[in-house]
Amino acid sequence: MKITLTVNDVERSADVDPRTLLVHFLREDLDLTGTKIGCDTSQCGACTVHYNGKALKSCTMLAVQADGGEVTTIEGLAIDGEHHPMQTAFWENHGLQCGYCTPGMIMATSAYVQDNPSASEEAIRHNLEGNICRCTGYHNIVKAVKQVVESAGGD
User: What gap in Å lies between CA 155 and CA 153, rounded to an integer?
Assistant: First the structure.
């Protein structure tokens, strides 16, 4: 099937097998490998992208379902060549170790803070339940998200 969607502000068209998951389309057809495949069951969140402005686990959507939509991956999150505030906060707060989950964590938390600019620490921790990190223990991830909330004038 022929699909056309906007990925990281660039219109992309391709012929895809109707069974192709969005995560595989992004990684294999567009070579956007920042979006990770972690579990294939939508449990880990490593494949999180923004679809039409909302966080979405890209292993839960077929590429053909994204036809006509807008997708932002970790490669497209920067603003005018500058890191997104969430990317900077993860760096400054050491919110990563091996880095495998980091793109999905950043995509999920950046969308969450955009919709919840006054999120409490408890709310941030609850939101992170859909993203698994096997290395950090989440403390510095939460610290990074709190930094973004506080810099935006939230709690």
Answer: 7
Can you state the angle between helices 139-151 and 102-115, rounded to 10 degrees? 40
Residues 4-20 pLDDT 10s: 999 999 999 999 999 99
- Collapsing DSSP to helix, strand or coil, 12 comes out as strand
Quote the pTM value: 0.94
Pair of tokens at residue 88: 């900077």
Q: Give ranges for CATH 3.10.20.30 in the chain.
A: 2-76
- Give me the pLDDT at residue 155, please: 58
Provide the 8-state DSSP code for 66.
G
Please check whether the domain covering 2-76 is classified as CATH 3.30.1490.100: no
Cα dihedral 129, 133, 137, 141 in deg (nearest 10) = -80
The DSSP secondary-structure symbol of 49 reads E
